[in-house]
């Protein structure tokens, strides 16, 4: 019998959650996802120094010297994405600056710039996903970008309201987080058994997957942010799963049969009423976990973006 990673690949598109090109080349996924935290970690390795130099040289050639570091950071993210695209057949997700999470127009402007940079390097939009936080403003920005042919990956997704709004906006893909929901739940109730199907993060993704398949939403569900392989095993069959290299290695060592847990052949159901901005904001207000983890995620990505820019600044 093949190992569980190989079994998983037969029912789910496996995506590597890493900014390290060597790890991605080793695991040979279809797609890959990045974020400021992963890029900051990766570029501290000596082999990526040349990419920093290229990004700085490019930024210096622009007329807007006041945003030199920010432009260099954007270019660096694209250069990392290009190196990743050379290793995979599918798409790479490149994230919009988290500081723009509540500014729809700025999010769209940044997304278009990112796509333009990829185009200038010979990579078409069909190989790129623009990663945006699942705020109301981010979702509406994604709605417009999708109309322009720019596919989006809506991240930091923790609630049913976020998932429904993304589907109705025609978003290409969502990344509902599993491990961060578990983290929050354990903090609230440390004595509860959250193993496998009892994991609230697993339950959340299962609920979203069921909504999408039963209602005919085309948006792809890609579970993310895993704490252990038990969560991955419990979501086998999900459209896509983005997994860290460490957990991919662990799955590859498991030789037991991996049963399918999610199946798209679900009884059809009527779609719920349209998600208005008022309903979205009220639903998020009533969901302490989703509100807290979304805000925390934006803060953490922002902090790592600032660290990344500070590191680039050292070379300028």
Task: Tag the structure with descriptive keywords.
316 residues; 14 helices; alpha/beta; eight-stranded parallel beta barrel; TIM Barrel
Verbal overview:
This protein has 316 residues and is an alpha/beta fold. The chain has a single domain, classed as TIM Barrel. 52% of the residues lie in helices and 11% in strands. The protein has 14 helices and eight strands. It has an eight-stranded parallel beta barrel, surrounded by eight helices. Helix 8 runs parallel beside helix 10. It is globular, with a radius of gyration of 19 Å. 46% of the residues are buried. The model has no long low-confidence stretch (mean pLDDT 95).
Summarize the structure.
The protein has 14 helices and eight strands. The protein is of the alpha/beta class and 316 residues long.
Beta fraction? 5-15%
Biggest pleated sheet: 8 strands, parallel, barrel
Low-confidence stretches: none
CATH architecture title: Alpha-Beta Barrel
Pattern of helices and strands: HEHEHHHEHEHEHEHHEHEHHH
CATH superfamily: Aldolase class I
Helix coverage percent? 40-55%
CATH C-level class is Alpha Beta
Largest sheet, spatial ordering of strands? 1-2-3-4-5-6-7-8
